[in-house]
Amino acid sequence: MSAGNTDYKYIMQDISNVYLGAKYTYEELIEDERIPFKIKSLINRYIKPELAGEDLSLESHFYYMTGQGFAYQTFLQLKTRVKISILEEKKGLINKGKREYATRTLALRDFVKIPPEEKEE
User: Fold this and answer.
1) In this structure, how many other beta carbons lie within 10 angstroms of the beta carbon of residue 61?
2) Which of 6, 8, 88, 91 is within CB 3.0–4.6 Å of 23 for a Cys-Cys bond?
3) Is residue 11 within 8 Å of 32, Cβ to Cβ?
4) Residue 21 burial by CB count (10 A; 0-12/13-18/19+): exposed, middle or buried?
5) Whole domain around residue 10: which residue ranges?
6) Is residue 121 scored above 70 in pLDDT?
């Protein structure tokens, strides 16, 4: 696996949060020894049964999540937040009308309200 394939595959933890890279698939998370046992258990018990055998990445699963289903409810209980980059129009007198990317952190409940077409921008 080249370095480009691992840019968004990371795990970081602090006292109360676990941060996972978006390119991880659920199968990779289960197999990775750095992933806490609680996360592996949640995936096996609550997430994987709803995926019907597909090995989706976190990115793909959240991207097309509709706000329904047991996996969605599980992620809500975990207070999942999604960090995204969105194209925004710059405000101000000098660069008015200029568009640039900004990083935002959204609650999953807010993220699923954005239609997939709008997420592609």
Assistant:
1) 19
2) 8
3) yes
4) middle
5) 3-119
6) no
Separation between Cα atoms, residue 120 and residue 57, nearest integer Å: 17
Of all helices (H) and strands (E), which one includes residue 11? strand 11-13
Going by C-alpha positions, the residue among 66, 105, 98 that lies closest to residue 83 is: 105
Q: How far apart are CA 85 and CA 38, in angstroms?
A: 29
The CATH number covering residue 32 comes to: 3.30.465
47 Cβ contact partners less than 8 Å away, ≥ 6 residues apart: 26, 71, 74
Amino acid found at 86: I
105 pLDDT more than 70:
yes
Number of domains the chain is built from? 1
* Reported pTM: 0.79
- Confirm if 31 and 11 have CB atoms less than 8 A apart: no
Q: For 77-103, write each residue's pLDDT tens digit.
A: 999 999 988 888 877 667 677 888 889
Structure-token pair, residue 32:
């990775």
